[in-house]
Amino acid sequence: MYLPKQFTAPDDQAGLDIIRRYPFATLIATLPTGLEVNHLPLSLQEGGLCGHMARANPLWVALQSQPSPQPVMAIFHGPHAYVTPSWYHSKAQSGRVVPTWNYVVVHVQGQLRFVEDENWLRTQLRAQTAQQESEFEHTWQLEDAPADFIDRMLQAVVGIEIKITELTGKWKVSQNQSLENQLGVWQGLQASKEAHARELAVLMQAVSGLNSH
Question: Is the pLDDT of residue 180 over 70?
Answer without folding.
Answer: yes
